[in-house]
């Protein structure tokens, strides 16, 4: 059974249609990369998958059950979401913030196990040393890793991330991508939007390319990330090096 199934989903903002009849499946423990130009509907798709947005037409299923049939608590335990451009609550410490990822599991107050899970999540993103810092003192990349840690602290079965590596330097980009790949080994399903096409090629099992709110192409990275497709999707020339699993953008080619 697919961990995530999106069936005939259309999303509108007022009269404006942002997603058109989107249909996709992600298997348990698979890594799906969502690519596409700015405004193509990536964030809208991710927000629909985690239930922040409700489609006007169609439905999203998690483990075979429609999103609307889950209680909020059940859903919060299964899904982790790392949004883009989250506001910082300045005076919280990193540990306090990451602990909020344990909320779906606590009844009264945090227990020892919650602190352990929070610290373990910080270790996973190499941010353990930041635990006592307040959020306002973090660099953009440090904060991004801490937001990912908060999602991991909730032990999600499905982790959805919106451009998680956009603020990170090359080393941390690779660390986060390796870490996400490692999660799929623990049968966690990962869905992530991204702009780095080489990373999509190297890390994803499956790529969905959006254009104008529709799925333009979907399949294995080597099927979707072709020079023809990418030129049509982004309107720029690209060069694909399949033997290196690498892609460069270059209008001079
Ligand atoms: P992407 O993440 O691929 O850049 P988005 O999903 O954020 O794209 O946006 C897709 C389209 O939907 C854009 O044209 C955007 O302006 C529109 N849109 C997104 N959110 C809203 C909203 N809350 N209200 C109105 N329009 C929106
Ligand atoms: Mg977006």
TrEMBL record:
The record's listing under InterPro entries reads: AAA+_ATPase, ABC_transporter-like_ATP-bd, ABC_transporter-like_CS, P-loop_NTPase
Q: Keywords assigned by UniProt?
A: ATP-binding, Nucleotide-binding, Translocase, Transport
Q: Which Pfam families match?
A: ABC_tran
Q: Which GO terms describe its molecular function?
A: ATP binding; ATP hydrolysis activity
List residues of the ABC transporter domain: 4-237
Which superkingdom does the taxonomy of this entry point to? Answer: Archaea
Q: Where are the annotated coiled coils located?
A: none
The record's Gene3D superfamilies line, in alphabetical order, gives: P-loop containing nucleotide triphosphate hydrolases
Query: Signal sequence: where?
Result: none
Keyword Secreted in the entry? The reply is no
Known PANTHER family for this protein?
HEMIN IMPORT ATP-BINDING PROTEIN HMUV (PTHR42794)
| Name the record gives this protein | ABC transporter domain-containing protein
Organism equals Thermofilum adornatum
């Amino acid at each position: 059974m697919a961990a995530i199934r999106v069936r005939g989903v259309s999303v509108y903002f007022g009269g404006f249609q942002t997603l058109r009849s989107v249909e996709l499946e992600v298997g348990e423990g698979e890594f799906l990369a969502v690519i596409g130009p700015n405004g193509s509907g990536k964030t809208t798709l991710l927000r629909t998958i985690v239930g922040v947005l409700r489609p006007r037409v169609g439905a999203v299923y998690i483990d075979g059950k429609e999103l609307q049939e889950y209680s909020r608590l059940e859903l919060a335990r299964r899904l982790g979401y790392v949004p883009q451009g989250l506001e910082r609550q300045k005076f919280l410490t990193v540990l306090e913030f990451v602990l909020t990822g344990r909320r779906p599991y606590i009844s009264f107050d945090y227990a020892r196990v919650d602190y352990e899970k929070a610290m373990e999540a910080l270790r996973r993103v190499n941010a353990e040393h930041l635990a006592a810092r307040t959020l306002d003192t973090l660099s953009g990349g440090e904060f991004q890793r801490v937001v990912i840690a908060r999602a991991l602290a909730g032990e999600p079965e499905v982790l959805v991330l919106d451009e998680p590596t956009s603020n990170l330097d090359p080393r941390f980009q690779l660390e986060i991508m390796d870490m996400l790949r490692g999660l799929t080994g623990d049968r966690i399903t990962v869905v992530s939007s991204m702009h780095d096409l080489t990373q999509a090629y190297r890390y994803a099992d499956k790529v969905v390319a959006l254009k104008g709110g529709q799925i333009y192409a979907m399949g294995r990275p080597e099927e979707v990330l072709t020079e023809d497709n990418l030129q049509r999707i982004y309107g720029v020339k690209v060069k694909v090096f399949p033997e290196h699993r690498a892609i460069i953008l270059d209008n001079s080619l």
